[in-house]
Specification:
Layout (H helix, E strand, L loop, with lengths): L2 E5 L6 H12 L2 E4 L1 H13 L7 H7 L5 E6 L2 E6 L2 E2 L7 H10 L3 H17 L2 E5 L2 H5 L5 E6 L2 H14 L6 H17 L12 E4 L5 H16 L2
Parallel strand pairs: 1-6, 1-7, 2-6, 7-8
Antiparallel strand pairs: 3-4, 4-5
The structure holds 2'-deoxycytidine-5'-monophosphate.
The site of 2'-deoxycytidine-5'-monophosphate (DC) has 15 residues, from helix 2, helix 4 and helix 8.
């Protein structure tokens, strides 16, 4: 089985790029951020205290998380409920970032992620895929873009959706999330030693997808 690990900060276009590249390669795409978001969503919607690790961890024994593919799209089910369309809010982004810093939450999700790579050729996108989840992945890519460029993209996206947002707040939020993800004690966001850096600051989606595909092909010799 071939595993392509794609790690990098929020807003670098990772999921769009990884999804499109996986289709072209004929591999399964796994968005691991959705798992952390789903745990965050479950805790928040069941009255847990997202800032208290003990409270979050107390929910884990009652959570069964599954990934299913519907029309080729990944859906996350928590205790049988499809939560996929409820986990994309700013509130759940923050909750996901917080629960992802808790070691027991990471441990809880580890086997689920590894299981897919055992069965299928995968493109797996996250923060610690090349470093922790799939340290033996044949291809490791660290996909990034400057914080300003990521904020610009997020701002444009929100304005197009008709939301009234401030660029400075978005930039501050991105920087805060980067800081938390990069400085947490467990599985901090950092490039694996054997990863290849793809910086999308000056690339459009198509060029970024091509850069990923070229990197995969050069590594696996196709
Ligand atoms: O990629 P995303 O924005 O959906 O991820 C949500 C949060 O989950 C983000 O703050 C980082 C965290 N995360 C993680 O710690 N490890 C992963 N493999 C994927 C996401």
């Amino acid at each position: 089985m071939i595993s392509v690990a794609i790690d990098g900060p929020a807003g670098a276009g990772k999921s769009t790029i990884a999804k499109t590249a996986s289709k072209k390669l004929g591999y399964i795409y796994i968005d691991t951020g959705a798992l952390y978001r789903s745990i965050g969503y479950f805790v928040v919607s069941n009255g847990g205290d997202i800032d208290n690790a003990e409270s979050v961890v107390s929910f884990l024994p009652n959570i069964s998380a599954e990934i299913k593919f519907i029309d080729e799209a990944q859906h996350v089910f928590i205790n049988g409920e499809d939560v996929s369309d409820k986990i994309r809010t700013e509130e759940i982004s923050r909750a996901a970032s917080k629960v992802s810093a808790i070691p027991k939450v990471r441990e809880f999700l580890l086997e689920l992620q590894r299981g897919f790579a055992k069965k299928y050729n995968v493109v797996m996108d996250g923060r610690d895929i090349g470093t922790v989840v799939l340290p033996n992945a044949q291809v490791k890519i660290f996909l990034t873009a400057s914080a300003e460029e990521r904020a610009k993209r997020r701002y444009k996206e929100q304005i197009e959706r008709g939301l009234d947002v401030s660029f400075d707040e978005i930039l501050a939020d991105i920087k805060e999330r980067d800081y938390r993800d990069e400085n947490r004690e467990i599985a901090p966001l950092k490039p694996a030693e054997d990863s290849i850096l793809v910086d999308t600051s000056n690339l459009n989606i198509e060029q970024s997808v091509q850069a990923v595909i070229d990197t995969v092909k050069s590594k696996i010799g196709e």
